[in-house]
Amino acid sequence: MPKPLLLETFPNPYPGRDYEIVMTCPEFTALCPVGGIESDARELEALEGGAPDFGTITITYVPNRHCVELKSLKLYLWSFRNDGIFYERAVNTILDDLAKVIKARRISVVGDFNIRGGIKSVITASAKAKRR
Amino acid sequence: MPKPLLLETFPNPYPGRDYEIVMTCPEFTALCPVGGIESDARELEALEGGAPDFGTITITYVPNRHCVELKSLKLYLWSFRNDGIFYERAVNTILDDLAKVIKARRISVVGDFNIRGGIKSVITASAKAKRR
Amino acid sequence: MPKPLLLETFPNPYPGRDYEIVMTCPEFTALCPVGGIESDARELEALEGGAPDFGTITITYVPNRHCVELKSLKLYLWSFRNDGIFYERAVNTILDDLAKVIKARRISVVGDFNIRGGIKSVITASAKAKRR
Amino acid sequence: MPKPLLLETFPNPYPGRDYEIVMTCPEFTALCPVGGIESDARELEALEGGAPDFGTITITYVPNRHCVELKSLKLYLWSFRNDGIFYERAVNTILDDLAKVIKARRISVVGDFNIRGGIKSVITASAKAKRR
Amino acid sequence: MPKPLLLETFPNPYPGRDYEIVMTCPEFTALCPVGGIESDARELEALEGGAPDFGTITITYVPNRHCVELKSLKLYLWSFRNDGIFYERAVNTILDDLAKVIKARRISVVGDFNIRGGIKSVITASAKAKRR
Amino acid sequence: MPKPLLLETFPNPYPGRDYEIVMTCPEFTALCPVGGIESDARELEALEGGAPDFGTITITYVPNRHCVELKSLKLYLWSFRNDGIFYERAVNTILDDLAKVIKARRISVVGDFNIRGGIKSVITASAKAKRR
Amino acid sequence: MPKPLLLETFPNPYPGRDYEIVMTCPEFTALCPVGGIESDARELEALEGGAPDFGTITITYVPNRHCVELKSLKLYLWSFRNDGIFYERAVNTILDDLAKVIKARRISVVGDFNIRGGIKSVITASAKAKRR
Amino acid sequence: MPKPLLLETFPNPYPGRDYEIVMTCPEFTALCPVGGIESDARELEALEGGAPDFGTITITYVPNRHCVELKSLKLYLWSFRNDGIFYERAVNTILDDLAKVIKARRISVVGDFNIRGGIKSVITASAKAKRR
Amino acid sequence: MPKPLLLETFPNPYPGRDYEIVMTCPEFTALCPVGGIESDARELEALEGGAPDFGTITITYVPNRHCVELKSLKLYLWSFRNDGIFYERAVNTILDDLAKVIKARRISVVGDFNIRGGIKSVITASAKAKRR
Amino acid sequence: MPKPLLLETFPNPYPGRDYEIVMTCPEFTALCPVGGIESDARELEALEGGAPDFGTITITYVPNRHCVELKSLKLYLWSFRNDGIFYERAVNTILDDLAKVIKARRISVVGDFNIRGGIKSVITASAKAKRR
What ipTM is given for this predicted complex? Predict the structure, then answer.
């Protein structure tokens, strides 16, 4: 299960300037929920869960008072590894978890997932802080 | 014949947020209608239909209450396989069929078709929901 | 000589929607007019005309009542093959000939020509229908 | 069903010289046999057959007395379109059918198939004429 | 733990000919054994195991009497997902497990692993059947 | 019609050393002979000849006493422009014409032709001088 | 020394339409002025001038009454070959010289210079005609 | 420690025109501060400092009265080599140091850093002169 | 100074089989020795040493009884960071240091260094164990 | 005129081992001799010499007792800048000049020249030391 408590922050060293941070993780993996596009009985028996999904997660944000610590982000993304989760939910969950912890001025999350059933999916979600 | 009844949906898990979903299918194939650019008598006899076309279909939408289920989309796109259909009609038909089923806030369909007669064609159509 | 009479049309199947058609022809060839950048006496004698030019023609348009038929476009572009014509004139001629035949809502023509004398040229021209 | 009778030949214009001909068809498609890696009940119902496979077929040969006519090869490869056939069998069948018709000095067939179940497959088979 | 029992075979349809099959799986993942290059206390606590590794496994073989069934290969490769295993051992294990099951005339396995600690690793191992 | 008389030579400045010259012409064009893969009645009427073919010709040779003069090679290749000729014949003709004029120690000609009917063709022929 | 007198023009064949011409010259070379980033005593002695610079010049303009003749542009760009000139001055000089001769509706010049001292430089300048 | 005193300028040769200069340095390296993402006891002992980081720094500015001298920029960027500095601080420091020295009309700095812990980071900061 | 004592090994898990390990480190950096191609007085003053060099080191070996431990290799390559060393010496030193520690059946080292003075250098050295 | 006296050497630090050095110079330029493929009267007047040629020179050698010093090689290659020389002669001259100075165990020179008259040329020459 995704563990948002793994996320840690450090104080933004340049809070007086709007600048942008992009972090790209090309090694995201989770499991397709049971019943998803490529699961069948033989697969479930083999892995005791759904089929694995792979993708690249890209996070873009303008920090306010805090930046996300890089290593804690890595551990947080690892925590999806053995979870069954749909693409749409994974991207929006990462957005919500990060937004809550770093309260960025603006933030977006892109999940670019490998082909499944001959179809490639890219999900993009974004949010803005209500006030600065 | 394209079978829009194959399309299935699931409830958008984040209806309160405008986010974008892009689905790319690089394995779209249909038949060129009889009389199209590369058909002749010998071809018709061989295949009992027009010459095959190949292309990539890319669907981009912002979901409202429903998302299209990935596997049902795959089956729907397969249903063009043995149909004679012009490029312009294929792209606009996919747009209309999806728009009717998922009522997305906005949606576009791009058909990027392989070279025929030394000419490559890309067709782009889009639609917006009238009100949210 | 370019033969605009070769261009044929078919009725736009979706006239109620603004959608875009891009047609790319990477096999355009014409002759450089006599006296152009790479012609000299020996070349003229060999070919009985100017030196050949090569390029890619890309046509982008939003159809109104008619679409250009793909095969007729191919034949029209072939009709430049043994004509001496400058780049600027070729691109604007294709634009004018197509605009007259299909009366598109908007249309642009890009000619991307191979290096001559160490210099690559790209010419872009566009037009809009005066009223819809 | 593959139709080897579609294959036609023309006399090799340079039979006195060993030279090589490579023909690449990036638009090969067939059906996965029922029960193959991505078929399930919903898919079978939709297409009345197995799931479609896509790939590129490359044929390399040194002609003896005959060359294969290009258009007949195209029609022959189209004849796999609605056939259920495994990769290994498709490649070896094309090799056998061509070898029988053109009796090339040497010939090889490569089938480079799109990812299925997260795995890409490339099959290569070749044959030599027993005597020249 | 890798589960070689998941591997299934089918009879080689062309046992009389030496032909080559290449299968590439770009979605291989395993865990780095505890104490490996990027594990530390915080990582172990987060994942209850070592850090994840990612790579592409490419298997090339000339079948003898049996081919490996594609879906069973996928399930077998998935079975490394939550195992701590060094690169060298992973590649040699896959080679041994496959060699035992399909007794290929010749077989090689390449593991091309993502950068860890700024260094990329590629391991290649191969084997031949002792007699045909 | 190809005009081998256009080919001119200059004395090899280093006849005592075997060295290799590769000349690549990406702008080769000829006409498909009447009756070829993409000709039909409408095409013939438009162009008064077969459909145009495009390709890249690559010539590799080790000079003996003479090198081919670059500009004369260009003019010679232009002389195919309005000729109906099959791929196999074009490549072997260029090889024969050059071999006769420069008597290279060894020479090869590769014709890499654009896709026609969904199939790409590459023809390679070579020759060696009988004695040096 | 750059020789703007080499620049010649021809009348714009379509003065009634705003269209764009892009000319790219990937073979621009000049000398770094004496004392520039990579010159030292040994280099000056060798070349009797500064070290050579290399780059690509891209000119984009919308013609008014005149277009620049392609061959004269080539000769003009050659005239920088043995001149010592800084990047900033080269780009702005080309812009000024062209603007004076063709009086384009708008024009820009980009100089994309090769790495020197581990740093790559790209300079972009543009101008508009004051009135049309 | 970064040494801004190394930065030297020369007078902008075209102060009357807004034009843009982009300088890209693909060979930036610094040290990760002690305690950063990939340091551990063994690493510290080896290098007597944190682990090295690598990246590309891209500086884009519109000069006012002064341009930065290229060689002095190179030396300034070298001065980070043995400094422990976080990505965010490095990019903002370069921006501040340059802004103070050249007082550009506008300036931005992008730091594109190599993957660490499976995550790639790109930081972008920019500033404008308060008045011209 | 390079520190070969940093190199550590682990027992080859498959000593009975000849298999190949390739390790690529794209982040190698050292200093150019004083007096090298791009050093001058201003540079020496700035860095208190020669100018930095950058490159990619690729090590390929067939292990005998020992493999090199990946993290120790990283630390060893870091130990060149502040050393003045010529390309030829760096590559041969790495080869000698590794050959002494792992006594591989065969081993090669390639150093692919970034452009200096407009010239790119690649050095390749290899060694074989005298007896197995 | 090429100045072989500019070439300097330093002692091979590893004369006991056969290892390979590849040096690539992508910024080679010379002049086409008067009368070459793209010269005409207007060009000669402009440049007081033939048209400029551009290419990449790649030198590969196994050193014996001496290596070529990198900076002296750069100066030597610059010395072709204002010389009229044919491709074949340039490549063989560089080979001869280097072979005389460094007496490499084996050496080859490749000249990869930009397109002229629509044709790209690559010349490769090599030599071996007579005895070691």
Answer: 0.88
